[in-house]
Amino acid sequence: MDILLPKSTYSKPDDIQAFHLDRQFADGISFVAIDLETATQLRNSICEIGICVVENGLVKETKSWLVKPPHNFYDPFNTYIHGISAEDTANSPTFCEIWPTVLPYLDGKVVVAHNTAFDMYVLRDSFMENSMAFPLFAFFCSYRLSRKTVTGCYSYSLPHVCRELGIEFTNHHKAGADAEGCAKVFLECLKNSGAASFEDLQEKFDFRCGRFSSSYFRPQLANHRGGGGGGRKICLKDIVGDPSKIDEGNYFYGKEVCFTGKCQFGVRKNLLQMVADIGGIPADSVTSHTDVLVVGQQDYRKVGDDGMSSKQEKAMKLKDKGQDIEIMSESEFLSNI
User: Fold this and answer.
1) 3-class SS at 7?
2) What per-residue confidence (pLDDT) applies to 329?
3) Which of 109, 188, 220, 323 is placed for a possible disulfide with 210 were both Cys, Cβ 3.0 to 4.6 Å?
4) What residues contact residue 116 under an 8 Å CB cut-off, 6+ apart?
């Protein structure tokens, strides 16, 4: 794999021309949704791939493939999330073996994932680990678009957004089901956005699509830079981010993140360190600046009759008053980070 090119290599007009982003939605909305499940915390450990093809605004085809991860090794946490184990993939093709089958569905297309900060980095790291050429496609994030176009959600994970939009959805964390759910959510979000094309969508919400091209990878980015939080004060002064790990494409980049409850899958300070490292803002209290509250296991001897901690109660009150604060589970946080 060659050295990756700078993020500024391709201009907006380059993207528009390469992927026909100026095509009017009135002429038919077409894209491919993708979902990836991994066997471990390492991004290059794909164990299932799901895709859903949308042509002219209609779901045409949904497919999924089990993939044998490196050494067919699984972390218990990942199996807990998606239910796939080493026994399931013992005789499955590796990523290198299955990719030629998947590639024709994506190459040259517009691709969508429900949290590109996870799925597209999983693809990037898998390509690089296996010295494989990058595909050619532009990508958009239904997770981020749903936050801008769907009101009333206290969490924007796929099941919650589907429920809010009245989309029937089952088998969460099964790659085919998630890809189809993502496709249907994205279609509804496009309708709600009022945008006339993908080009218009970017202008309307001030962001730029992500892109894979040859040796080039660019995450979906806001046109304005978060700058590590716009000068807000970091509440946990002993947690200092590692500048070498800053990731503008990560979902938590530039966002203030607070935790409540006991963390089941890690130590809270370590999780907040992860937030700081990618360019987020770790916080120890819920305020008018809070962007995300991560809810762990609650001690029911301490919470109120409603089962919520004081932080969660405050977050919900702020949200009810119109503050754009997101409440997510610890597992959702780990999937996003």
Assistant:
1) coil
2) 86
3) 220
4) 139, 140, 141, 143, 144, 210, 219, 220, 249
φ, ψ of residue 159 to 5 degrees: the values are: -60, -40
Q: CB neighbours (10 Å) of residue 152?
A: 9
Look-up of token digits 């296991």: 297
Closest CA to 140 of 218, 24, 23, 86: 218
Range list of H helices, 83-169: 86-89, 95-106, 116-129, 142-149, 158-165
Tell me the mean pLDDT in the region 322-327. 84
Residue 61 to residues 83, 105, 137, 220, Cα–Cα distance (Å): 24, 10, 19, 26
Q: Cα separations (Å) of 76 from 176, 234, 292?
A: 22, 33, 26
Q: Which two tokens stand for residue 318?
A: 């702020």
110-113 and 31-38 beta bridge pairing: parallel
195-243 pLDDT per residue, tens: 999 999 999 998 999 999 988 999 887 764 444 443 444 456 678 777 7
Q: Where are the beta strands (DSSP E) in 207-288?
A: 207-208, 210-213, 216-218, 221-222, 256-260, 281-283
- DSSP letter at 264 equals S
- Interatomic CA distance for residues 109 and 177, integer angstroms: 20
Model pTM? 0.76
- For residue 210, what are the β-bridge partners? 139
Helix (H, G, I), strand (E, B) or coil at 250: coil
CA proximity to 290, closest of 261, 252, 263, 264: 252
Helix axes 175-193, 158-165, angle to 10 degrees: 50
Q: Distance between CA 78 and CA 34 in Å, rounded?
A: 19
- Buried-state track 45-71, b at ≥16 Cβ within 10 A, e below 16: bbbbbbbbbbeeeeeeebbbbbbbbbe
- If we measure between CA atoms, which residue out of 139, 146, 134 comes closest to residue 111? 139
Helical pair 175-193 and 142-149, crossing angle rounded to 10 deg: 40
